[in-house]
Amino acid sequence: MADGSVLLVEIARGTLSRVTPDGAVTVVAETGGGPNGAAIGPDGACYICNNGGFEWRERHGMLHPVRQADDYDGGRIERVDLDTGAVTVLYTGTEEGRLSGPNDIVFDRDGGFWFTDIGKRRDRDQDLGGIYYGRADGSLIKQVIYPMVTPNGIALSPDDSRLYVAETVTGRLWAFDIAGPGEIARRPWPAPNGAELVCGLPGYQLFDSMAVDAAGNVCVATIWNGGITVVAPDGGAVEHMALPDAYTTNICFGGPDLATAYVTLSGSGRLVSLPWPRPGLALHHLNK
User: Into which CATH architecture does domain 6-201 fall?
Assistant: First the structure.
């Protein structure tokens, strides 16, 4: 944020929280459910992907989301007034059905937003996921891409021509060509959902949320092989920056020239910062 603080969601706590440069944490808004991703919209408000809530379990000293919460109250997109902390439910579903587990969100230059719905896992079944597009004024939400397998992180290329989506359990990074606000130009069969595969990781590595740097590289938080996987736009180069948490879940850029990375280490409940070798990409409606 402009004052040097970082806004983040605390899923298990059910809050949108602010971390100031001295490390102090204050609650901006209590959303309940499972606030899972956040982005600043064209009106200066914060828009939240709320997954409706997880059941949590502690294993090996880390808190894990294991299934849909018993008090799950449905997925939704929420708007938070940062001045008052007031939370407004903007969307709960589309003509195709209710939202299940909204996860991550990114705004385009036109003021609309793309978001993932990763679905929900229960004891004996699991939802398929999808990609949706909405307007911040509450006038439109639509399902654009369906189905996908646990779509999680979502980001735009520097010129807004490509939409990147990371699937968690497959460890794959996909790119969709954007034809207009809320529209994609599908590649021909057999491309899944018309997407291009940018990267697929070997071994047991899971993708979470992401950000793009100013050069167009996609920086994806990686679980188990904890750290940030940096993928060139054409997938031709892949590098890994290791971090001390198997549950590395998200990254954003801030500071002078956007040269500082802020990373959530969710297994240990930490927000860390580190100098980044390249500046981050300025986000629409936030970074000037």
Answer: 6 Propeller (2.120)
Q: How far apart are CA 96 and CA 238, in angstroms?
A: 37
Dist. CA 20–CA 2, nearest whole Å = 11
Identify any residues that bridge with 37 across adjacent strands, giving them in sequence order: 49
Q: How many CA atoms lie within 13 A of 269 on its CB side?
A: 11
d(CA 118, CA 46): 20
Residue 12, token pair as written in the block: 């298990």
Alpha helices in 84-205 (DSSP H): none
Angle CA 207–46–171, to nearest 5:
5
CB 238 within 8 A of CB 230: yes
Q: Are 205 and 221 in contact (CB under 8 A)?
A: no
E strand residue ranges, 118-161? 129-135, 141-148, 151-156
CA 186 to chain centre: 22
Measured distance CA(234)–CA(33) in Å, rounded: 37
Distance (Å, whole) CA 119 – CA 112: 22
Q: How far apart (Å, rounded) are the C-alpha atoms in residues 11 and 18?
A: 14
Phi, psi of 192 (to 5 degrees): -60, 120
Note whether 203 and 223 are within 8 A (CB): no
Q: Which amino acid is at 37?
A: G
Which residue ranges make up each domain of the chain?
6-201
Q: What is the pLDDT of residues 70-119, one digit of tens each?
A: 999 899 999 999 999 999 999 999 999 999 999 999 999 999 999 999 99
Q: Please, which contacts does 84-91 make with residues 24 or more away whose CB atoms are closer than 8 Å?
A: 85/27, 85/28, 85/29, 85/30, 86/29, 87/29, 87/30, 87/31, 87/48, 90/47, 90/134, 90/136, 90/138, 91/134, 91/138, 91/141
The pTM for the full model equals: 0.97
